[in-house]
Amino acid sequence: MIIGPNAMTDKEALFTYCLRRGDDNLILSHRLGEWCGHGPQLEEDIALANRALDLIGQARNYLQYAGTVEGKGRTEDDLAYLRDERHFVNVKLVELPNADYAHTMARNFLFDAWHLPLQQALTKSADAQLAAIAAKAVKEISYQLKTSGEWMIRFGDGTEESHRRAQTALDDLWTYTGELFVTDEVDAVLVKAGIVPEMAPIKAAFDATVGRVLAEATLKRPADGFMMSGGRQGKHSEHLGFMLAEMQYLQRAYPGAKW
Amino acid sequence: MTETTKITREHILDLLENVKDPEVPVISVRELGVLRDVEVNGDQVLVTITPTYTGCPAMDMMREDILAELHKAGIADVEVKQVLAPAWTTDWISEVGKAKLKAYGIAPPEKTADIRALKGEAPVVECPQCGSKDTGMLSAFGSTACKALWKCNACLEPFDQFKCL
Predict the structure, then answer these.
(1) The pTM is what?
(2) Could you report the per-residue pLDDT of A151-167, keeping only the tens digit for each?
């Protein structure tokens, strides 16, 4: 942590923190939106689009607030459509391409199991806007975690094939979960100001939820080993650039286009 | 008329009864609990609304509709402010609003303080078509962010349920 005149101010830290929360939601939302028209059944197709909508809403709140905190006149749309890949600060977990439905549900479940306790803690933020955003988000995420957890149980405790696929998905995704709990100067500055929570209790809540659901699902929690990182610093997998090319195409090709 | 009519809060509230949820056009923004406050200061009107679901695309439309309704009534200086706190809950839907939802074919939400919710049990949802309590959830998500998809085992009709939030 840098001490002295180069130390990060609360305002700079808050801007980056809001981007991180906004980007996680935005990028996962886009991946879920890609399922639209391809869901395994109509109800699930609709369910994922609904979930994507909740995430978009949360992303908008965070990106709007990031723009306000930054104070340079950037809007939520500027931040979503006109930043380059290296300036996105989401975790790598959310940018991975979609695979089968077990993979999508396992990713949702792992994300929700981290996201819910984080947002619950953020409702007590010293920053009134962060607390307000969290109070709304908590209601939606509770519903989402219930659904994604039920799917893990159904897949794990279902047929041999669904069990195999769910376990494979967990094994493939596990190395991407470590990044959810990594903290740096941004968090340190804001924790000190009472604006964001410590990460240790969030990790404990995540472990408890994952333990409870996987036990009921008869699935094995993968061993902690090497963990991916870099997303929070803008160092992404090769997949994010392709997604942004599609997501940002319209605003890049026709700047300021509206409908 | 030479004298300008004085704008009152009650007049604005009456006018806003005409602004409906674009997805559920039988219920007004006031009955839905989206309308939080109206302040009148001389010729200026400040309308405060809160979103139902964070990502609900109907919010932008409701804002436009509120502006249009008040402009149509000759009130020019209108601002619509959106607040997040306190977070919207389905408990704010008025009893009249719930009755209208039911008549429209959407099962209204139970109270958040429902003892079943506290115990983590599934809600008992009455079919808005035939009134039977023999119903089951088909999908936790439905045609809009605020609804889940249910079916009635008695009349065999599917129906939307307004999720309790």
Answers:
(1) 0.91
(2) 999 999 999 999 999 99
> CA-CA distance, A20 to A84, in Å (whole number)?
14
Q: Say which amino acid occupies A64.
A: Q
Do residues A48 and A36 make contact, with C-beta atoms less than 8 angstroms apart? yes
**Residue that the structure tokens 């195999």 belong to:** A164
Q: Across-strand partners of B158?
A: B151
Three-state secondary structure of B84-120: CCCCCCHHHCCHHHHHHHHHCCEECCCCCCCHHHHCC
Q: What is the ipTM of this complex?
A: 0.82
Q: How is residue B28 annotated by DSSP?
A: B
Which residues of chain B lie closer than 8 angstroms to A43, CB-CB?
A: 138-139, 141, 149
3-state SS, residue A215: helix
Query: Is the CB of B84 less than 8 angstroms away from the CB of A136?
Result: yes
Q: A53–B53: do the CB atoms touch at under 8 Å?
A: yes
Q: What confidence tens digit (pLDDT) does each residue in A129-155 have? A: 999 999 999 999 999 999 999 999 999
Taking CA atoms, A42 is separated from A65, A110, B81, B121, in Å, by: 35, 24, 37, 26
DSSP letter for each residue of A125-180? -SSHHHHHHHHHHHHHHHHHHHHHHHHHHHHHTS-HHHHHHHHHHHHHHGGGTGGG
CB within 8 Å: A136 and B57 = no
